[in-house]
Records
---
Amino acid sequence: MNTLIKLEIARTLRNKKFMFFSVLYPAALYLVFSSSAKGNDKIGDTGLTFPVLYMVSMASFGALTSVLIGNAERIAKEREKGWVRQLRLTSLPGHGYVMSKMTSASVVSLPAIVAVFLVAAVAKDVRLDAWQWASLLGVIWAGSLVFAALGVAIGYTATGDAVRPLSMAIYFLLAALGGLWFPASQFPKWLQNIAEYVPTHAYAALGQSIEVGNAPHMKDVAILAVYLVIFAGGAAWLYRKDTHKA
Amino acid sequence: MTTTAFAYTGDGRRTGAPVVTFENVNKSYGNVRAVADLSLELYPGETVALLGPNGAGKSSTLDLLLGLRNPDAGRVELFGTTPQQAIEQGKVGAMLQSGGLMEEVKVRELVKLACDLHRQAYPVDEVMERAGITEIADRMVNKLSGGQEQRVRFALATAGANELIVLDEPTTGMDVTARQAFWSVMREQANAGRAVLFATHYLEEADAIADRVIVLHRGRIIADGSAAEIKAKAGARRIVFDLDGHISEAALHELPFLTALEISGRTVRIQSSDADATVHAVYGLGLYPRNLEVAGLGLEQAFIAITDAATAEEAAR
């Protein structure tokens, strides 16, 4: 299975379109968004400035892009092309394919997070303690597993032409509602109430707590854990269903 | 069971425990019965061709055999266990028509993956050499021609020491040289005591390579035996001659031992289970056949005759 994971990582890194969207795009978007706001303005009750807040948002967004879009479309395509069938004729255990997809996706999401951190530190003078950088990286990276599971689930739901619109719709909705593009604190109150339970919101909130200097809220961790169970459970169920009709 | 009358006798290599066992296997998709009450056993060292027109249930049978689908009823066993277990133990290598390849990787990387996943893998270079893909090792998989892709699939199916090799239309897209090389490798495998099962629509391949031919029709086995036995079943001989003057089709239909009749222009083509008697009766009708030829049937005609007969039998029911 290690060979499969390594190969999955290698081919993802070779894919220029993917590298552009998941690594460079979030970092570029970060520059655009954070320069339009005044550097010292605090946002809402977070006590954070735009460049700092957006760093977590865009790093989360970048990780989300790489694990969600990458996984969903590829799995759907590979199911269609019969590669999944071919793999099932090897000694690889049934869930090995899904595991390797999730693992390789999360490895590839690391450069996306690091790219945003680098741009923030170099271009926007974001300064944090060493423990904060380390735990931000860890939290954003670990949290991306939730969306890797969602990507697998989407990949097993749709095929062909349907998978791109479906994954895009979910992706944009999650990014926007979770406050990854615009701080959720600027939403109208009713939308804020909804956004609080969107997985991407909880995801970004983990990092923002660390930026303020606190440990992540248990509520956000719990929300993400519930979503992880739902997405992974759904992915496993869809995978088994697909196995039966293959 | 219709198959017992044509049980494989082969060259006596049918020994040991069966490699594949199908016992009264049924599979339907909606109202379509893809596999109907199928029972068969394959043995080590056998090279078996699975023949049948499109929609006869060849692919469904292979899917069931490989555990890619579960039967509605009946039992499928490989090496006395489930197909999934046999595959996990590395006993089965398979090349599917519907089996895709991983894209955006090099040929060599993909073959290495297959070797790493196999419990009893051969060295990567050896696998590539045997499949004839050493020269394209560094090419990207998604930039290959159809024939090259097919050879890569073959490499994946033979990455390790399998005891059963399953091939679905394996030589599609290969040129003649590649096809010959392919079958010589397969013969080696069979001689090493492995069972080889392949579905094909190239009847000459089945005729030349298989020592056992199973003909499927609408999910049922309608013939199971050596190529020679299948030909014998279909009506042994083919009679062709030209006639001058008026040809009475009705009179020709009355000929004894006739299994098929076709008239095109002046030429009459007959299949007969007793050619001597049929030819005798042609003269008996007062006809004077010119350019008379009597020959054995090719497997192709035999195949058509058998499937036509099965269709007629079903319609009559």
Note: Residues 1-12 of chain B have pLDDT under 50 and may be disordered.
---
Amino acid sequence: MSGETHGEAIVNRLRSVSAPLLVFLLFIAAFFGYPLLMLVYGAFRSGQPGTSGDFGLSGFTNAYGDPATWETLWASVLYAVGVQSIGIVGGFVFAWLSTRTNTPGSRAITVTMITIFAIPTLFFAISWGMLTSPTGLITQVLGTGPEGGPRLDAFSWTGLILVSGLKGIAVMYLLLLGPVRALNRSMEEAARLSGASRLRLFVDINIPILLPTLSGLAILGFVNSLGQLDVALILGVPAGIYVFPTQIYDFLATTPIRYDSASALALLLIAIIYLLVLLRSKALGNRNFITVTGKAYRLEREDIGAWKWAGLALFLLYTAVALVVPLVQLVIGSLQPVLGVSGFTLKHYLDLFDSPNVLRALQNTFFVGVTGGFFATSLAVLISYLALRSKSRLAKAPELVVWAVVAVPGIVLALAITWAYLSLPGLRNLYGSIWIVLIALIIVVTPIAQRATSGPVGQLGVELEESARVHGASAPRMMGTIVIPLIGPTFLASWFITGVMAAGSLDIPILLSSTRTETVSLLVYNYYTQLGNGSRAAALLLVLLVLLALGGALMLGIGRLLRRRAERRTRSRGALVDAVRPDPEPDRTTPAPDPDQIPDDTRAVSAASTR
Amino acid sequence: MARVIIESLEKRYSPKAAPAVPALDLEIEEGEFLTLLGPSGCGKTTTLRCIAGLERPTGGRVSIGHEVVDAPAERRHVPPEKRDIGMVFQSYALWPHMSVAANVGYPLRMRKVSVPERARRVRDVLEMVGLDEYASRMATDLSGGQQQRVALARALVADPRLLLFDEPLSNLDARLRQDMRSELRDMHRRVGTTSIYVTHDQEEAVSLSTRIVLLNKGEIEQVGTPREIYWHPVSHFVADFVGYDNFLGATVVTADAHGVAVRLDGTDLRLDCPARAGLGEGDQVEIAMRSASVIMGEPAETMPNRCTGTVVDIVYLGDEYIYVLEMGPQRFSVSLRTAEVANIWPHGAPSRGDTVTAAIPPDSLACLPL
């Protein structure tokens, strides 16, 4: 046994960490960890961030002493349970239909779900708010109820849960797609041969196998719903329904501003969230999530007969409710002189482009979307790659830090950032600038980027890299010629998804934006809540959606173009080789192809590669 | 081409765990095809990776040619890309985003060879592995065997001074493996590059190498030509690994420079074995023999090392029969080709309980000290 003391062991471990890795670890700790610590600090301090104040428990006594807080807690739980029930059941049904049955249009289901996932939550809240307003499309069709109000009212408990559930279904669908697809077919066949009916098989085999996944996702979704601000703010607050995020926002948006109470409430929310995450891992342990077997088995879709038309109808209904009808309402609303008043005008669109606010907001949104997505994806790739390749055990720490952040709601994070950056003299100057919004958005979307990239990065075989090294590539050249081209497509996809999420976020800018750094979603929210500006909000929201769609198409196009170009280039190397005809006469050297006749892009590559 | 010298190579993956390779000494001559043979976890891959520079040794010294490439005591480590080697990996490790030509041309591109020269050399080496028609295909569009040929071409193209093979055939099916084996042999005959080959398959090692190093737990168990390893194993471990399937306890009767005579424990049978140093009268030993080396029936009657035994079991395996013979407390198995059985016993093969004559050629026996 070695005689080293505990202290020596720690020093030795640190010594085994290379300097760049250490710098990176410190950066991760500061970037992700420090704001959360400051949130705790803030809860015990009266006064605003960056000003002098006393330490005390007033934040806690104020927040927890108020019976309204506990009502909010129950309301939040009710809300989250409702949304997640819809999300899980709907997501599971659609995932099953699209991967295991012969329901027509299974590709369309996935594409639709990705679209709904990418659309800012704001869209569903505002469009459904408009649809069920007294002059909305749905109210016009269904008429008014006995008390004169709309028969279907989004500004209600039911509305709140249903509208949030619309997006919840898409999120759960995307998360369940893999596990449902990976269900081992031979287990089902074995059960059928043992005499189990289809239903028995489902109950006895499929559900238990999926249970760890389902419960894990249920908790993840529950946690997300607990922290979800947008819908609750737009549909809940007008109806007098308060959940945690809106309560926190209320503390911060109405005078007297109570930072300490907001922080205390945020801490309680985080405590509940981590407790749930902990419970889940305690209950299920590190049990292997799913029986993913080799690629050998083929995916057979079950013929469900006439039920497939029911499946298709269900999908079409969902698409209509989540996507088509809201879009129609937005288009109509944006063309009305005043929301709900019939008539036709392009005034609102023209106004948008006259307004310096809108142009600035568009610029800001573009900036945080593009750079936020880029940095989040870069960080995520770097983190996964380090964890995969570094021999130091400390290199796995950043992954854990990012997973800790995934549970932190946007509004809580915005508050934490406020504390973190206003409390440090140098960083204080960032407050009120677009950078603070960008930093917060990067933190929020990095876990998503992590999820999107860790799989493909993890599949990067180490031998692919080693063979490059052995065959003459230095580490940086190996990165440039092998690693980056291989993870490029994943990188682009993740960049786009996280960019869209950053651009569509409301809970970060609502706390951190100043008048100069408003984003489009914040502006849409402001217009919508101002009386008489609903049409303008609809117009701006549509502009945002169109821009996001264009961005998506552009990204797809660029990705495809790059892929094609790369393949053409590499194949042209083969054409060059083909051009060298074996020489029949051994004493004459084979005429090498004239460099001027080499296809242009090949020369570009070789020029680039020798640089 | 270059010789490789490994001096007391040590590799520990963590300071506390036992070393994967404790202290290995090995010299690989110029132009040699040396195989590191052993079961998984014997340190053969670790050794190869240290030579490649993919793993940093924790002690000792590795030189390729006249260049010391690893000497941890002097803080010397030449990165893999500066070692001028070619390597074939178990998983082929072809880059899926590149065409066959780009994969094969990569080492040349890294060595800044001009584009036309690159095309010419890629063409030559692809021709050598029979894939010149496939230059513009994507590497991953090829079959497993073709992919491994591309990997071989890539290792060869830059004419490196050393070729390394890390179980290159283990992902191929049996027939393809055989084809690739003879191709590798041809290739080595033609280019003559010093090669180090790692495998756990004794057949592969015996058919390819000029010399075999048998490793066990990071240490060398035996070094020798394929013939030496195959017929003169020095230990139970080696004998077991290269396919000896009968191990019988015996006591040395006489031992000199001409041979060793032993008596099989529990019987009166005296067996002559090849000479072996370090044995004296009365020593307990283990006799190893291959079931396929034993001769039975009439031809055995006039041979040395003759014995009689009782058939206790017969297993039919299609193209061969396994007879299990019992002599007193000892049992051993004999395998006979099905066609041979009819030759030896034209009037009907023996059945269970019959007494038969068998002979074990002295040269096919290995006398292993316990």
Note: Chain B is about 25% helix and 35% strand.
